[in-house]
Amino acid sequence: MNGAENLSDPLVRLGAWFLDPAHLGALLRAILYLALGVTLARGARFALRRSALALSAQQRQLLTRFVYYGVLILFGISAMRQFGFDFTVLLGAAGIVTVAIGFASQTSAANLIAGLFLVVEKAVSIGDIITVDDVTGEVLSVDVLSTKLRTFDNLQVRIPNETMVKARITTLNRFPLRRVDVKVGVAYDSDLALVQQTMLDVARDNPLCLDEPGPLIIWTGFGDSSIDYLYAVWGKSQNFLALRNGITRELKAAFDAAGIEIAFPQRTLQPGTTPLEVRLYQMPPGGSEPGGSEPAAPQVDTPGAGEGTQPPSGESSDAGAERAQPS
Amino acid sequence: MSETRERAPARTGLKAAADESRPELKWWGSVDMPSGGVVRVVAGPTRVWVERRSNDWRVFSAGSDWPDERDACPAERPHEAAAEELEERVPDVRFCFADAPTRLVVSVAQADRAFVVRPETRLSVGPGERVTLYVSTPTWMVLSVERVARKRPGTRHKAEERSEPQRLTELPLERPSDTWFGRNTVAGELCYATRTAGYLRLDEVPRLPHLAITPVTIENKAADPLEFERVQVPVPLLGVYADATGALWTNALSLTRETSGDLAAVKVESGVPTAARGASERLAKPRSEGSKSSVVRAFSRLLQIGANTP
Predict the structure, then answer these.
(1) Is A35 strand, coil or helix?
(2) What is the model's pLDDT at position A65?
(3) CA dist B60 → B30, B54, B68, B99 (Å)
(4) Could you tell me how far CA A102 lies from the centroid of its own chain?
């Protein structure tokens, strides 16, 4: 019973404090301040979201949050002062608190400051398509501590702002034009003038491929199996994927139509001094596998016609030499 | 089965008075269609079928069949087509209505971007010379529908009341290639590209149903030759006219190079171009009106002298 009285004692005293007519007025004023603060903060947020200010989505979001929470904090402090809270005491302890918080939240503070740098530098904006490290996606928001991306397979990736500041960011849609690079190798026996003209014709006939800047055709080297080119065409950034898919399909079709072979690695086996002997056996009707018994009518075909049949020898089996041969 | 019945041949016909003159290049016009009716329009390399159902309009298009035989490009105004022509086709798009309007209006429009016209051979205008270059650019086809209410015979007012045309779709009669007009790949303007033989005589200019001819008059008052590789023709700022043969024309452009060498005085000539004989009415107003200052800005970079985008 005594314990219950001790427990209820602070509550009773708090109730009595509020019921005191002098404190009741403070309570009502505090509630009024809070209600006014919430209303004003929401009103300011609503107005900023729909205002015609010439701000980017990211700047608008940042300003809205700053104003919203700023108004709430100011009115909250005013409400607390109605109960006699003295905030100068908190200011005195602020130094100690700052040191403590600083040690406890180094990472968060670094992310916070990095976020400010990101906003001030305008490194990324909401709606940008960026690649950070190996992640590519659309920027959903640049928040206080992190930047959120939506990848093309519809995953949300949260990247700490500190990482964003340190990482190499590639923005894919910052400029109106993009270049599609296609590496292509043609066979060594190709007519290179025809190859280049075919590439130009493909670019000219694709409406998504810009006429100016024109297509680039750059010889990049004599490869192991092909003569290599960099074929680069320009297009509108929004058409990048359509252009990349279309131009490769059309290039392949045009090469096929012109008799140009797109080279691929090939190996040609050449025998040494002695030609390899090849034997063809004709299966007798209803007969068994050749080799099990003496074939009935062996037909022999050798590289050197007229040389007759030669029994396989150990010499010819290791006479083949392997070397890369361009097609 | 019901779809087959709906595709019965339509009893249609053009209402336009211009029918009597039979301009051979004309492909625009309007036509009243019953439910199940099919019409075909042919304009240069583009063929379009439009079918009316009770609750929707269906648009079918075919690709370019005559890309290499431009001189043979035909023109057919909207006219009744056999339903069998659509048997194997799937509509590109359907436009749904509670009660589909009855009249199809096929009209002409300018392209939605400026054209960069590159002469096939480099052109040079000598000092003190004034030449007119005729360039041709593809136009767009606009399909609209409108409701028509017939009035009783004997009424003194017009025989029918028409609603405002409701635009269904538009399509380029020849899809031009994209190009960029600017000093570099960051700053500039996305345009369409086309090439011209640089016709200087009017009788040399081929008349094709899907191309609009723009007379560009260039006057070089400077002491040195004016050489240029490409000309930007801001067709969205130009109206479209048709001459007696049905060939399309736009407002003329004039460009003057002053003695100082600057390209200053550039303007759009108002009204029907003088070279378009027999043209009377404007078929399409400019796609974007633009203020006078914007016109000046657009034209101040109309002509680039030897400029190459890196």
Answers:
(1) helix
(2) 82
(3) 17, 17, 23, 20
(4) 34
Contact assessment for residue B147 and residue B101, using Cβ atoms and an 8 Å cutoff = yes
B175, B190, B310 member nearest A236 (Cβ): B190
What are the backbone dihedrals phi and psi of residue A17, each rounded to the nearest 5 degrees, phi first? -65, -40
Cα separation, B195 vs B116, in Å, equals 8
What are the tens digits of pLDDT across the range B251-266?
998 888 887 766 655 6
- Neighbouring CB atoms inside 10 A of B43's CB total 28
CA-closest candidate to residue A230, choices A199, A184, A180? A184
pLDDT value for B309: 33
Q: Is A84 buried (19+), middle (13-18) or exposed (0-12) by CB count in 10 A?
A: exposed
Interface confidence (ipTM) of the complex = 0.74
pLDDT, greater one: B169 or B195: B169
CB B229 within 8 A of CB B158: no
Tokens 């004039």 map to which residue? B254
- Residue A251 pLDDT > 70: yes
DSSP B151-186: --TT-SS-SEEEPPPEEEEEEESS-PEEEEESSSSS
Band of residue A304 on the pLDDT scale cut at 50, 70, 90: very low
What is the per-residue pLDDT across A258-284, written as a single tens digit (0 to 9) for each? Answer: 999 998 887 777 777 777 777 888 887
Question: Checking DSSP bridges between strand B253-257 and strand B211-220, what pairing results, if any?
Answer: parallel
Per-residue CA distances from A92 to A89, A101, A118, B271 (Å)? 5, 15, 33, 80
Is B309's CB within 8 Å of A213's CB?
Answer: yes
Task: Kindly state the tokens that stand for B231.
Answer: 């000309």
Strands B189-196 and B115-119, by their bridges, are parallel
Which of B118, B178, B193 faces A235 most closely, judged by CB atoms? B178
Percent share of chain B, pLDDT over 70:
77
How high is the pLDDT of residue A120?
79
Residues 6+ apart with CB under 8 A from B155: none
- The CA radius of gyration of chain B, in Å to the nearest whole number, is 22
Q: Is A154 left (phi over 0), alpha (psi -120 to 50) or beta?
A: left
**CB within 8 Å of A317: residues ≥ 6 apart:** none
pLDDT, one tens digit per residue, over B98-107 is 888 989 999 9
Secondary structure class of A22 (helix, strand, coil): helix
3-class secondary-structure state, position A118:
helix
Residues in chain A within 8 Å Cβ distance of B193: 210-212
Residue B147 has pLDDT above 80, yes or no: yes
- CB–CB contact B193 A206 (8 Å): no
| Sequence-ordered list of residues with C-beta below 8 angstroms from that of A102, at least 6 positions apart, any chain | A109
C-alpha span between A115 and A101 (Å, rounded): 19
d(CA A236, nearest CA chain B) in Å: 8
Of B176, B179, B186, the CB nearest to A212: B179
List all residues 6 or more positions away from A192 whose beta carbon is below 8 Å from its beta carbon: A186, A227
Cβ count within 10 A of residue A79? 21
